[in-house]
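Two quick folds needed for the group meeting slides. Do the first one here.
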Amino acid sequence: MKKLMMKYYVTIFLLLMFFISEKIFSQENHNVFPGLAWETSNPEQSGWSENKLTEAKSFFDSLPPASLIVIDKGKVVVDWGSDTMRIKISSMRKSLLSCLYGIHINNKEIDINKTLKVSGIDDVPPLTAEEKQATIKMLLEARSGVYHSYVAGTPAMRIKMPARGSHLPGTFWYYNNWDFNALGGIFEKQTHTKISEAFNKDIASPLHMQDFKEQDMYYLYANTDAPDYEKSVYPAYHFRMSTRDLARFGYLYLCKGNWNGKQKVPAEWIAESTQSYSVTNDGNGYGYLWWVNDFGPDIKCFSAEGALGKYIIVIPGSDLVVVYLNHTEYPDNIKNMSPEDLKKLPTETDAQMNQLLKMLMAAQPFKNKPGK
């Protein structure tokens, strides 16, 4: 009798643990993935507030022309503007490269703990012996201490750049385009693969991106007559992409690198690269080429961001991916543009994106339940 009772209790315990684990698994894993096209969900039927979405749409329409897509639990609930238009994403490119690093570190092709010296990395004009002590990881964190001239970047970035030799490698955070461009060169040198080829093979094709083509990624080199502040052997690597393709990339990160049952990016890398290692000038966080909680303490997220209002925002606690692309592209060559002309370019501020995000999140179903 005691043996039967014990067997009964063990069976009940195992069944209970099974249902608990299934519940946890279903909460942590998203089992709706886009095929050749995204599935759409009627916002109102899904419990979203029609009135609040109308308010958000009115605010969106007041901003410069843009495209916006919102993914809720793997389905499109908001799609405003053109989701197929390929637009230069500016500095969002850096988060795409971070993903490629995670894949190829896992393949043992890159060791981010090696110094620039050991990795055979230099520039023209040459790096100092001290600068060569920076590790690849420090470049991913924007903490290299290498304040060398670089290609691309905004005037504000150049004004704020510290003097060469002012900070030891690893001791100071600065949003540094030299770090980011050099990381592109290091990636290609160590993997023997072009960034566009790797992105297409490792990310775009497996995720069935609908619009991306390898020729949508291009390099911006320093011209022979470039001013001293642009002289570098490392080009900027730019992408033009659509909101619906970038939404797949954001959803991959929301799903911790797992795409429909296949681990495309190590979950450990996603967790490591999207946590903060530095406090930025705005008091927010920065990981490995990802911004962390950049929209205030009320929105726990990580984001890829580019000039003039380009965003991928992943909000794990709300199962949301938000992609916003201002249709205006930041010019490749700004040396002939006046500061006044640059200021006239249509843009969207972080404060406006913050407001739009809060309006979208206020329209979510759980925000509209009694007692919430």
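Then this one, please, same format:
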Amino acid sequence: MRPPVTFLLADATGTGGLARAVIGTANRLGRHRPTRLAGLVHRGGAQGYTVDVPHEVVHTERRWSRQRGPSQLVPEDGLLSAESDRALRRWLGRLPPGILVTTRPSLHLAAATWAPPHVRLVGWDHKNFLTRYASGWLGDVLDRAVPATSAWVVLTHADAVDYRERLAPARVEVIRNALSWPPAEEPAPLEAPVLVAAGRLAKVKGFGRLVDAFAPVAAKHPDWQLLVHGEGERREAIQRRVDRLGLSDRVRLPGYTTDLRAALRGASAFAMTSRAEGFPMVLLEAMSQGLPLVAMDCPRGPGEIVDDGRNGLLLPDGDVDGFSRALLALVEDAGLRRRLGDRAWRDARRYEPAIVTAQWLDLLDSLS
């Protein structure tokens, strides 16, 4: 029998892209080999995604925060505390022989420090090399943790090049995130006067510059709307920007949606103006419905998903004026929308779950 694999993430009840990718991967692997899921903490929310494999919480103390002192392992990390250090060290020490996949820098280092020798370690990075090493302490954590792994999984080829150069001879593998659902049977009609975006309402997602880019579109085409699905700490700031630009009847923030597929199919293009990404799941999900993509080439991910002029339009990072022109091109040319959307729909098959699951199985089998 194949040895068991355990996925460890910060909170298995999360609703973001990381939790979606990890839980989906664990569910699919569970059909082929013993698989379980663990969250270090449970922040108290309802389960965001269906979990089909056994799962547990490592640190069940309700006051899991830093109230009882900072972590001695990674003092700067907002997740860990002295108390969670103790819980995590005990949990890691009890792991049976098998493979542990960690999903966050502090968890990579904890596993590298405290996991027993009979556990093979796989680190799975969900951001990008440039973002990680922009922070001195995060770079230090990775420099200490990655060499202890049996494999280091990244989302883009650009990241693989950088990690191999910095941390040789670490084994670095590229495995993309998988679609959360199969591609639609046919592309969306792309007839509604709606542009759509989705993600956490945080500074890194750049929704302020998306609102700025949409303003000229709204002025020229008063029948078109922009819908930004998601929740986060920047909601009020984004709404103030919308109001200041006189777009309150044109830009809506409907909140987190439990039916993203329907939201995507009701639009005619998908827009992304993030400042940084890992490998954005939401672009793949938009492709699966046949939406043309418009994205800024932020570090990293969009540049390896958006094939400029074929499945979407790719603009330099920060080019708000160029982004406005790209949105106008799609708004004003239904034929262009359909051509790019059809190619996006076909390209989405590269990320079908069966293909990505086979890549994970190959990697895990090589470590067994």
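Slide caption for protein two: The longest strand covers residues 119-124.
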